[in-house]
Amino acid sequence: MTARRLLTRGNIGLALLVVLLLAMPNLASAFFVNFVLTQTMMLGVAAATIVFLARYGGMVSLAQFLLVGVAGFMFGNAALEGGARGLNLGLNPWLAVVFAIAVTTTVAFVLGALASRTTGLYFLMLTLVYAVIGFFVFAQIVELSGPGGITSIQRPDLMGPPVRLYYVGVGLSVLVYLGFRALGRTTFGLTLQGVRDDPIRMASLGFNVPMHRTLAFTLAGFVAGLSGVLHVWWNGQIDPASIAIGPSLILLIMAVIGGISYFEGAWLGAFVYVLAFTYLRDLPLIDRIGITEARFNTVIGAVVLLIMVLSPEGLAGIAARVRRRVRRPGSVAPTAPAGGPSSAA
Amino acid sequence: MTATLQRAPAGSTRRRRTELRRLPVWAVAAAAVAAAVWVVFFADGTPAGAAVANPGNFVVTLLDAVTFAGLLFVAASGFTLIFGLMRTVNMAHGSLFLLAAYVAIRVQEAMVGRSRNIDASDVGLLDWVVPMLVGATVAAVLGLVIQQVFLQWNEGQELRQALITLAITVVLADQMLREFGGLAGRMVWPGAVTHFFSIMGERYALTRVFMLGVAVLVGVLLWLWLNKTSLGMVIRAGVDDRQMVRGLGINIKRVFAVTFFVGSFLAGLGGVLGASFAGVAPGTDGDWLLNALVVVIIGGLGSIKGAVAGSLLYGTVVAFAPAYLPSQYSFYAIIVTFALLAMVLAVRPYGLFGRPA
Amino acid sequence: MTQTTPAPAVPAVADPVIQVRSVVVAFGGLLALKGIDLDVTRGERLAILGPNGAGKTTLFNVIAGDIAPTDGTVAIKGQDCTFLPSRHRPRLGMARTYQKARSFDGLTVRDNIYLAIAGHRGRHWPLWRSPVDRQLDQDAAEVAEAVWLADHLGTAAGELAHGQKRQLELGMAMAAQPDVMLLDEPASGLSRGERERLVELLDSLAGEVTLLLIEHDMEVAFSLSQRVVVMADGAMVTAGTPEQVQSDPEVHEIYLGVEATS
Amino acid sequence: MSETGEPVLDVRGLYAGYGASMVLEELEFSMGVEAVAIVGRNGMGKTTLCDTLVGFLPSSDGHISLRGRRVDGHAPERIARMGIAYVPQGRRLFPSLTVDEHLAMLARGTRNKRWTPEAVYELFPRLAERKRHGGGNLSGGEQQMLAVGRALLLNADLIVMDEPSEGLAPTIVDVLVDAVHHLVDEGVAVLVVEQNLRAAVRMAHRQLVMVSGAIEAQFAGDELLTRPDLQRRYLGVGAADRAVR
User: Fold this and answer.
1) How many separate domains does chain A show?
2) pLDDT tens profile A19-70
3) Is residue B269 part of a domain?
4) How far, in Å, CA of C176 to CA of C97, rounded?
5) Per residue in D41-63, pLDDT tens?
6) Which of D139, B349, B10, D102 is nearest to C26 (CA)?
7) Nearest residue of B to residue D79 by CA position?
8) Do A341 and C129 touch (CB under 8 A)?
9) Which domain holds residue B327?
10) Residue of C124, C132, C160 to mutate for A, most A C-beta atoms under 10 A
């Protein structure tokens, strides 16, 4: 029974995709693997935390990239020894990882607790404020961020070759994807979805609604922290500008491009974004249509605008719609409510 | 079983409930009093010094707070007006702010006939007022276009609207960078108000008081519009119950359009004031979106009264934190802003004058 | 008439599950409840009747903890619960339904009931599935069968028809196996046949379950309850056995608005 | 009852509901310049009918016409201007507005019409005394008067009232009953949804009984009031015959 249930088309596709991804270092150029795909994995995990909060909790967070940054800064502060910028705690690199994740999770808990009594647009705006204030905190308190950022951050020796980072990224992505999806069927996940649909009813059933929201935000912060550590390993440095309002918006934009209620969408959106960011400006076409002066952001903004106008469900949503139509031609499929449970794959 | 029922006398019950509700209020009040006591008596090692020892600095900081609050109010009132009626979070508010500032600077340069190093003495009152009106009108028209093209047809899909305006922000920021370059620009106050006056032995810029005057004028006009005209009444009614307003035969689409126009105009006005006050540069749009957000989150979304209260509170924190934190901690002023936000949200999750959606 | 009449027909009871004392609720300037006193015994079935706007649902909200009274006290099983938030009430064995069905529209019928059971049993946090969950799922399926939703276990609550939503609402209240149930107009919107099934279902509940019922439908109310309380205009007008209330001409007239002519 | 040639309101084969579930099914009735009451158990779709008539809820199928003009499918503001005014359940006043502002915001366009703010104050003198009070600080009766007065300013052909007597003291219900009769005398049709059977009968000579989203029966005069069997059958009121004098 269980074995057969695992053998669905979706799961086979996922397994094939993972095999393909693991084989990529032998198939594609080092640049494509170490730059495009590694970034996709890291950003995909961070974007997946937005999807997690939006889909199960009905909370659209703009603070996720701040948490990525907090983890990065904290790792830098903890791992570097005296003489460098920042706090220079000089911890063992693995201990530094634990420290970074612990701090990030704690920050997420505090921020989540403060926001736990607001919902919807209020939550969106409050997390935007978090993101901007967080940026200012790192920009102004140089003790934490080093003057002009923390540089020459080394990753642990085990992670030395870039391709290992890629494998870690793939592994983490698979874990996060499966974990978040499985969470939807657990008590905590169901509870969170109940809170999303009707918080008052949940309270009368005995649930602590603000606490559920807080813990969901904390869990998302923990995962964002993992992505942040990977990111700072990959980048080797971090500065306040990298967590300014712009990057925070871009992470949300990735989730939106991919489809904010589909976990697949997080990685899809990250991939599309990184691909566009890397190659779009090289296309000769861009010169021809006379927007050389206008930069990349105009294009990406226009793409998001187009997606939001056409389908707020993003690319994954469009794909799902096409698939439904192909599978059941002619029949008018009832569209599942946004953020509804996925049919158990 | 009956015997176990302890029926508390009604009096004590009422007191207990009051205590429960007031606990965070007391904590916040205590924090505020502590901060005030610190500022007045103990703030010795700070840039400004304790108020009893150095009253001049205190008055100047107070003036800074109130005048900055004026600017905050102009910038945030349009945001809260639009949200209150239409439940649209206009993420492009900061972009309209910045655009109006750039346009006004261009117009002023054209009117004065010089592009850099404009001297205040060359700027007549009209050389400031006309660019202000032009800049704000451009912002208002663009706001109206955004509303008509992108927001009008998906009313009620609040998140989608927020994301659409977010995307517009990204595009506008990029295009403004292309058009106006990456350098900081500045509006020049009219020469007539570019003076200093003396208060408690300290020099203070008249331009800041002028800015406050403009803000108060805007506030009064806004109040008159909302309270004394039938359109204003319709807008307030719409904040309470949009559907019922429609049920009374009022063309809500037209009201929406007017509101978005006025709200964007206010954003533009704020932009011109901000450009005169501190100058603008790429990134100012994000800063002022943040400022507007902090004000309305503190004051309560959709409430003009809340925008006033939020501006004053936030302005106070912005002015006092750097002046009265111990010198070596001045960089931590931003934390105080966060603390203000945290304190307000702990007492009222939807802001001082806000109501849950 | 606005004076409170503390249940004259039935004397104060020996083993009260719910004790409401001089509860006042004010919304702005409006007094929704004008001083209510009510005792409910263990195992009692009490119906609250009255025209719309009489304050029945407000009284429910106070007892269930969704709103705190402006004045007065509420005790459940001897414990003062006046300001106890609603989320602590299930631990006292209390469950309620809402007049307008409040289900979790994005979740299936099974998961709705699962949440009701999990909430009551204090299973709120696990991040993984265990045999306990499988047991809960089975329990949920049984409850669904009891409220005739066995065929809709996998249907999203948002796609149920009106009557089915009311059945789900009832199932979610029963799922917790509470010993105090507050049902707000369970028969509203049900067809005649469905109403009969409902009465049958509620009748089959164990004897120790205390049932508080707001009902507009006198037929349902009278056939289910041992005692009837009539409310109007935020106050209790009268109380008694169904027979007493039925034979009290004043009650019927109040109910139909006759007081307007008197 | 003045059943003239062309009905004021004509509803044919109306379907409406929320999402997957239909609340109104094949609902039909028509009325002239008269007061008609709709009665029925809770949850039978009375409020849904009101919301559908005024356009708050789009209908799924069927026709609604007002004096021969189709009104269904239009936006609520359009329907209101075509001539259907609404006094919703719970009144839905604007808490931020004073009594006077409620009327002033609609005053434009009422010049030379029957109903102006002054005329409303004349009809409900108690409102005039409370001009400056906020909508939230009024008593239940005053709120209801304001809700009716606000609807009157539309100078509509038809006024739909959902549970006007809800939670009101008897003397206030008297005022409302008088107001309804007054309106009909002046040529305005009034459709009133009522829980309070006595108030319904006093306001409207003709009563329609709604069961499961359709009109199932029609009564005239006070027949319903004197027939406990009918009450039990249609309204769920009166469990025993002896319950009613």
Assistant:
1) 1
2) 998 888 888 888 899 899 999 999 999 999 999 999 999 999 999 999 999 9
3) yes
4) 12
5) 877 888 999 999 999 999 999 99
6) D139
7) B249
8) no
9) 55-347
10) C124
